[in-house]
Amino acid sequence: MDKKTYEQIYHQLNSIKDINRLSQEFSIGTGILSNIFHQKTVQAVKKYHYQVVRKAPDMLNSWRKGDTLLEIAQKHNFPAVLITSIILKEMGHKSKAIIKNPYLLQDLRLRNEVLQAMDNDFHYSPKAHAMQSMLGKMGEDIIHEWLIDCDIDFITESEMSNTQNTKTPDFLLHEPLTINGIPIKWVESKAVFADEREHNRYHEKQFKFYEELFGTGVVVYWYGLIDDICPGNYMIIDHTFFENPKYDVKKLIDSHM
Fold first, then answer.
1. Is 17 left (phi over 0), alpha (psi -120 to 50) or beta?
2. Strand pairing of 154-156 and 171-179?
């Protein structure tokens, strides 16, 4: 995706309701837009979380006056589960336990509103985290099947967990596999869209160590990337590389966060 298009989408993508409209306007899949919106939300949370937490007494007061947890979240333009967690802590509850099991609450109003907040949070609810994990596994499963079809021997990250290397890719190949004339030794799957910030974060945390330890590899950004991202000593591909009817790529790319 060219940077100009990405910036137009990023600035217009302010609600989950914007996804279908922008999908039609830019002819981009809803799953890709959902992923970009998720990243935008996460970045906003990191930026404003401290400021929102400082408003906990006021938010609790609003709740006591009759505002629902969801209404308070919408007023502050912040994920409903995070607002709920902040208010629960202000009440003296153990928020993590309540989010995990709202039925621990005896207060019927509070319990119902926690459930409502969870149903309307597409980023930080247990359901959202489960979806994110599922999409990550779907991407890894496609690569796993593709490597088997290529008749390549490999070990997975979980199989490498007992080795001395602390930084391990999703797949380490026993012998190089040539892609576009380049021999690769490892594959990393990321069920994300990569802008420059996202890519640089992964490069510093993971990819550069894979280069040092194993040599040239390939990163799969399933939901695409900005065109002018510069990789290190590794390739970057997206879902189009795997567009074979045998692989269920469409189900992955069309899935919403």
1. alpha
2. antiparallel
Question: Length of the chain in residues, anyone?
Answer: 257
At 171, phi and psi to the nearest 5?
A: -140, 130
Please indicate, yes or no, whether the overall pTM of this predicted structure exceeds 0.70.
Answer: yes
Q: How far is C-alpha 237 from the geometric centre of its chain's CA atoms?
A: 18
In eight-state DSSP terms, residue 102 is: G
Amino acid identity of residue 130, one-letter, is A
Write the burial class of residue 43 (CB in 10 Å: 0-12 exposed, 13-18 middle, 19+ buried).
middle
Low-confidence ranges of the chain (pLDDT < 50): none
Looking at 12-166, which runs of residues are DSSP E strands? 154-156
Burial category of 133 from C-beta neighbours within 10 Å (exposed 0-12, middle 13-18, buried 19 and up) = exposed
**Pairing status of strand 182-190 against strand 217-221:** parallel
Q: What does the block give as tokens for 245?
A: 């009817």
Domain architecture of the chain: domains with CATH: 3-119 (no CATH), 128-253 (3.40.1350)
For the chain, helix (H) and strand (E) counts, in that order, are 12, 5
- Contact partners, residue 102, CB within 8 Å, separation at least 6: 111, 114, 115, 118
Q: Is residue 118 classed exposed, middle or buried when 0-12, 13-18 and 19+ CB atoms within 10 A define those classes?
A: buried
The pLDDT value given to residue 256: 67
Q: Bridge partners of 182?
A: 179
Contact 67, 74 (CB under 8 A): no
Q: Rounded CA gap, 137 and 193, in Å?
A: 16
Q: What is the model's pLDDT at position 148?
A: 95
